[in-house]
Design a protein that fits this description.
- The protein is α/β, with parallel strands linked by helices and 255 residues long.
- 27% of the residues lie in helices and 28% in strands.
- The chain contains nine helices and 16 strands.
- The protein is globular and about 65 Å long.
Length: 255
């Protein structure tokens, strides 16, 4: 089964990093965010990836072109340029890298991948800036059981600030950053049927607007409710939180 990862956005809210690299290449624990996301899928048996590239996509291409060499011991025969690889530690992944345009929106990027997905059926899709301990096997089982065209993973992120209930100046209840403080939101980690392409118009199509709104109105969008760990990387603060989780030795998305 194909897994699409949207890797083309500008990442403007993380400009301290994204001025020089695409957002999925921002490192956590010495590895790009993209690598962490792909490892999540690998643990559930999904290793056939298609990366929708855009902003600074050449850096992502370079990373995977040199990936095997970077993780192997090498003997280089300078006379003929032959390279012998030994002790390789690279993952057994199939990675397709497709340029989907510098300014294409999320739905447009998916639409551009349509020729590369045929004649494949059900496929997965997520963003290149979020990690989770979501059970992808259970997600796919849920999707197949309900028979609709689309499934989105719904998450409830921690509120950024503590919540208080106040009455007559008295704090009646205080909760420090409650997990459910901001309600259910789109956490990525989608499962789609090919018919979703009928909801995509052109490069300007934003997946999270008309396509998903129309699918919801028609009863074709289901939510897989994930109450475990989920964290996106929108800001430097988010990046630092992810790094701290990794440094702790018990990053929840590691499995």
């Amino acid at each position: 089964m194909k897994t699409i990862i949207l890797c083309g956005g500008l990442g403007t809210r993380l400009s301290e990093e994204t001025q020089i690299k695409p957002k999925p290449m921002v490192e956590i624990g010495g590895r790009p965010m993209l690598w962490h996301i792909m490892k999540i899928y690998e643990r559930h048996g999904f290793s056939d990836f298609m990366l929708a590239l855009g902003y600074k996509g050449e850096q992502i291409k370079d990373y995977f072109l040199n990936y095997h060499a970077r993780l192997s011991d090498l003997t280089v025969h300078l006379k003929d340029g032959k390279v012998d690889y030994s002790n390789p530690t690279a993952e057994d992944w199939h990675v397709s890298l497709v340029d989907t345009g510098a300014s294409t929106m999320t739905g447009g990027r998916l639409l551009r991948l349509r020729p590369h997905l045929q004649p494949h059926g059900t496929f997965m899709l997520t963003y290149g800036d979020g990690v989770s301990d979501v059970d992808l096997t259970a997600l796919l089982t849920f999707h197949r059981a309900h028979g609709r065209l689309a499934t989105v993973t719904a998450v409830r992120p921690s509120a950024r600030f503590g919540g208080m209930h106040i009455g007559d100046g008295q704090v009646l209840d205080f909760k420090e950053k409650p997990q459910s403080g901001e309600g259910w939101i789109n956490g990525g980690f989608f499962v789609f049927e090919p018919a979703v392409f009928d909801y995509l118009k052109d490069d300007a199509t934003v997946l999270e607007q008309s396509p998903l709104e129309s699918l919801a109105r028609e009863g074709q969008l289901m939510a897989y409710e994930h109450t475990g760990y989920w964290q996106c990387m929108d800001t430097i603060r988010d990046r630092d939180a992810l790094q701290a989780a990794w440094d702790s030795g018990s990053a929840p998305w590691k499995g």
